[in-house]
Design brief:
The protein is about 15% helix and about 40% strand. It is of the alpha+beta class. The C terminus is likely disordered.
């Protein structure tokens, strides 16, 4: 049993949280501030999820791939727009129930330029042993995100959250 499950019997009252939508700009900024997320892809005709290191490059998400992993078998079709994947990262404090979550969905391509791959090898900091053998570049067509806010007024700006470059007002403490 993990600590969270063990502590579930000790209920601490926490005020309800509200989902405050993030603009595309703010969502990508937050995603770029963490090194680890989860990639969602199709494996043997079923959805699969794996943790992965990432960085942002020009608005695209670049994911490191190691040989010997399921991700290493991903090969986007050569004659199509790419492989459809999703990528998600979050930072959520379990005690305060505050934080954020961002998901991007788009087409992915293997990075084939040797100089660019070397650059990503030096930029990405893998958490697993072994060399970074490949990189997958995701062009995010859909970017969604939310912040868990304690103030319900943060949610009222949801229409503005869809406008590029406009952030929803969220109290700094949220």
């Amino acid at each position: 049993m993990n600590d969270y499950a063990r502590d579930a019997g000790v209920r601490r009252e926490v005020a309800p949280r509200y989902l405050a939508p993030l603009s595309r700009t703010e969502a990508l900024r937050l995603l770029g501030g963490v090194p680890l997320g989860r990639i969602v892809f199709t494996h043997q005709a079923l959805p699969a999820v794996r943790p992965a290191n990432h960085c942002l490059d020009g608005g695209d998400v670049v994911v490191g791939i190691h040989d010997g992993t399921t991700l290493a078998s991903l090969t986007p079709p050569a004659d199509g727009p790419g492989l459809v994947v999703a990528y998600e990262a979050d930072v959520i404090d379990m005690a305060t129930r505050r934080g954020w979550s961002v998901a991007v969905t788009g087409y992915a391509h293997l990075v084939t330029d040797p100089d660019l791959l070397d650059h990503y090898r030096s930029t990405l900091r893998p958490w697993v042993a072994g060399a970074l053998d490949h990189a997958l570049r995701i062009q995010p067509d859909v970017v969604t995100g939310f912040r868990l806010a304690s103030d319900p007024s943060a949610v009222t700006g949801s229409a503005a959250a869809d406008a590029p470059g406009e952030a929803v007002a969220v109290p700094p403490s949220a």
